[in-house]
Amino acid sequence: MNGIVAKSMMWNLWHGCHKLSAGCKHCYVYRGDARREVDSSVVVRTKNFDLPLRKKRNGEFKIPPGTFVYTCFTSDFFVEDADKWRAEAWEMIRYRSDLHFMMITKRIDRFSDCLPDDWGDGYDNVTICCTVENQTCADYRLPIYRMAPIKHKIIICEPLLERIDLSTYAVGEWIEQIVAGGESGYEARPCDFEWVMDLRRICVENKVEFWFKQTGSKFVKDGKTYNVKRQFQHSQARKAGINNQFINCPLSTINITRSVNASSPHRVVLLL
Known about the structure:
Blueprint: E1 8-11, E2 14-15, H1 28-35, E3 44-45, E4 68-71, H2 83-95, E5 100-105, E6 126-131, H3 135-147, E7 152-157, E8 177-181, E9 191-192, H4 193-206, E10 209-214, E11 218-221, E12 224-227, H5 233-239
Parallel strand pairs: 1-4, 4-5, 5-6, 6-7, 7-8, 8-10, 9-11
Antiparallel strand pairs: 2-3, 11-12
């Protein structure tokens, strides 16, 4: 899944979060809310909470079968404030087994306390991604994540704030994909291309899918720092030609808008 899934929708069932670790410092949700004078630290249930169950006048679901649903992208699905709503959310996810739900969390240590009774070894239609922005977060979260009963797992190294060594985690045994990306925004911290290539190397060695999602605003290559405008950060990452897919990855069968040939030269053409 080296790109945004073509047949997809966003489902932000609650909004707001609490900054937890280094990657949260320049959170895009906080930046956007600040412009609207909204307090991002207040977690609220949104008007789209029941979106997966809503139907059109003809009786068809507004989210059609086969849709990939990006879930809770303006909060964290496992944030403590949402404990009172999460059981109902799980019921909707279970009921819409014809959809695939993907959520990203920094709170994998709360995962085991937030599961429905019938979770077992995971729902087939749920991907839970774990964010690790630096080595400290990786070393704390990944042992928990590895042992968690989840059918589809993706490691998100975004914002990538330093070199992360995943060589001891045997990612080929339990991970479907690793995603790397720099930080966006005017106050973004640098992302070094060498750190990205280290993660790609681990993926190639372990036959794990890799997606270089975006350069971020401050991108370092060959010792030089580039200021990359927001509209070019994804396209510049694609031009590096370092994404790869492996046919044994279950998510590689999902229809995506673009996939980059892993045999392409490692070029980042920066538009300055």
